[in-house]
């Protein structure tokens, strides 16, 4: 073979065509970059893969793998978006995650996604070929990508830790199953409340302390909640309500046929029932029957069946207030607290952000005051907490809140009802809340008219079921003299005087109006 004028020839003078270069078969060698990658570009494409999985693979020439990762990620995002858009009330839908089994699933999924994103970062970095960089670039990118891996795992670890903390708090507070003193659990998951349209909760503020024996039920409020709408009536009973009666099914009905300690002219107070039952297991037929006795007494007084109770330790409540960063309340007059004459401290008048200790004593102080006006301040504190403990605040301070909740609560609400209870709580936040307080001059705790109390309770519940425009302005009424006779609509006005004595005229007032929230 000879060359003639640059063209190969073979013997006989025939020309031989030059051979074409054939492309290497796919996968026969590593893909080539359009432009050499620098240290900054390796870090940039790796970081972009944390937001858009597959970006680094596309840049490196692995298009099939990159498109698969991008497609899977897009499907996941569209699924989440579709879930959010197809829910009429997204916050109510998210209450599904309050179920213990769902929480375990969330923890497992969050942990798996955290490991998957960690692996994605490592693979994205390797596929970009950091070995092509100089030694300094390899060291810099290696350290930076390591930190990036830890960063992308942090949100998943936080979710898993938060849900785990919530699950631990629920198991610490709520019993695993129903007890003999509460309503049974319905077997139908579609109807966890067993066909009930209204559930009644007894909320008790416990006054236990290291220098006292037993528990004094310092505040007693019944929250009667409509399951469908969330409309709620708060019934506040004074601690010095005397000689309450018990239903015929209670052992104390036989012990006190004429009323609790009716033989004592100045005794037999409602706040003594709990401890009396605990001190007399022989009469009650078992130990720790204080909650049952108080539920019986309060329910019989109001003409309601009390389904569940929750005891809140007041010092634990102070820790809970501190956990959310304090409570904002307008204090019209100085409130002294501690000792006989308020020598421990003073809550100054003005728009204040109260610490846990201040909020506790704002609701408890009787200096220059009485039990009835103190009940009004207590509802101001409860209402302020309900308004200001927003989802954002709860999530931001969740660890502290969960820790405080473990120390503050005792209840017979079974764990399987936690998720349905959270659903109801979400409804209550946006529903109509009215209140009825059994205080003078309409109701005298020393000589209570039991028929009048039951009639007023029934009317308050019936009024709460009317459309909003026909009932009391939404918001907890904290007026110390509210009788609930005829809820009236009030216009928003400057907050009235912080309740000190029960001298205000009867009439419903909104929480914003009375407490300056």
UniProtKB/TrEMBL annotation:
The keyword Transmembrane helix applies. Residues 1-32, 462-517 are annotated as: Disordered. Residues 470-482 have a biased composition (Polar residues). Keywords: Membrane, Transmembrane, Transmembrane helix. InterPro entries: LytR/CpsA/Psr_CW_biosynth, LytR_CpsA_psr. Pfam families: LytR_cpsA_psr. Residues 216-389 form the Cell envelope-related transcriptional attenuator domain. Residues 483-500 have a biased composition (Low complexity). Residues 14-23 have a biased composition (Basic residues). The chain crosses the membrane at residues 68-86, 106-128, 140-160. Belongs to the LytR/CpsA/Psr (LCP) family. This is LytR family transcriptional regulator.
């Amino acid at each position: 073979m000879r060359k003639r004028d640059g063209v190969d020839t073979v013997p006989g003078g025939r020309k031989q065509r030059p051979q074409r270069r054939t492309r290497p078969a796919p996968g026969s060698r590593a893909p080539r970059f359009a432009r050499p990658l620098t240290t900054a570009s390796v870090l940039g494409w790796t970081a972009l893969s944390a937001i858009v999985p597959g970006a680094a693979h596309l840049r490196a020439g692995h298009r099939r793998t990159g498109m698969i990762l991008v497609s899977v990620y897009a499907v996941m995002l569209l699924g989440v978006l579709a879930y959010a858009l197809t829910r009429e009330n997204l916050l109510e839908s998210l209450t599904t995650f309050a179920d213990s089994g769902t929480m375990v699933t969330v923890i497992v999924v969050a942990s798996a996604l955290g490991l998957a994103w960690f692996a994605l970062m490592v693979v994205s970095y390797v596929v970009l070929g950091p070995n092509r960089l100089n030694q300094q670039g390899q060291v810099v990118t290696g350290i930076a990508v390591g930190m990036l891996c830890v960063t992308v795992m942090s949100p998943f670890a936080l979710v898993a830790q938060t849900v785990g903390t919530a699950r631990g708090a629920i198991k610490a507070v709520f019993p695993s199953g129903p007890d003999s003193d509460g309503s049974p659990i319905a077997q139908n998951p579609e109807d966890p409340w067993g066909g009930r349209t209204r559930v009644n909760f007894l909320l008790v503020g416990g006054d236990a302390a290291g220098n006292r024996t037993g528990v004094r039920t310092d505040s007693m409020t019944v929250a009667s909640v409509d399951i469908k709408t969330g409309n709620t009536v708060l019934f506040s009973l004074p601690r010095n309500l005397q000689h309450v009666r018990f239903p015929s099914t209670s052992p104390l009905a036989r012990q006190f046929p004429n009323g609790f300690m009716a033989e004592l002219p100045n005794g037999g107070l409602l706040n003594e029932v709990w401890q009396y039952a605990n001190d007399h297991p022989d009469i009650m037929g078992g130990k720790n029957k204080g909650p049952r006795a108080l539920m019986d007494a309060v329910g019989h007084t109001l003409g309601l069946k009390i389904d569940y109770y929750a005891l809140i330790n007041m010092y634990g409540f102070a820790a809970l207030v501190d956990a959310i960063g304090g409570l904002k309340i307008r204090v019209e007059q100085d409130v002294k607290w501690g000792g006989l004459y308020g020598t421990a401290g003073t809550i100054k008048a003005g728009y204040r952000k109260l610490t846990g200790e201040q909020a506790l004593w704002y609701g408890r102080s009787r200096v220059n005051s009485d039990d009835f006006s103190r009940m009004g301040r207590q509802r101001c504190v409860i209402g302020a907490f309900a308004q200001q403990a927003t989802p954002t605040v709860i999530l931001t301070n969740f660890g502290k809140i969960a820790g405080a909740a473990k120390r503050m609560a005792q209840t017979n609400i079974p764990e399987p009802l936690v998720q349905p209870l959270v659903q109801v709580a979400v409804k209550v936040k946006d529903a109509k809340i009215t209140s009825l307080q059994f205080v003078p001059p309409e109701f005298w705790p020393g000589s209570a008219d039991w028929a009048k109390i039951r009639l007023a309770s029934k009317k308050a519940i019936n009024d709460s079921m009317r459309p909003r425009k026909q009932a009391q302005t939404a918001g907890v009424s904290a007026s110390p003299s509210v009788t609930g006779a005829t809820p009236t609509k009030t216009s928003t006005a400057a907050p009235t005087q912080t309740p000190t004595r029960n001298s205000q005229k009867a009439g419903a007032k909104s929480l914003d109006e009375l407490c300056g929230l």
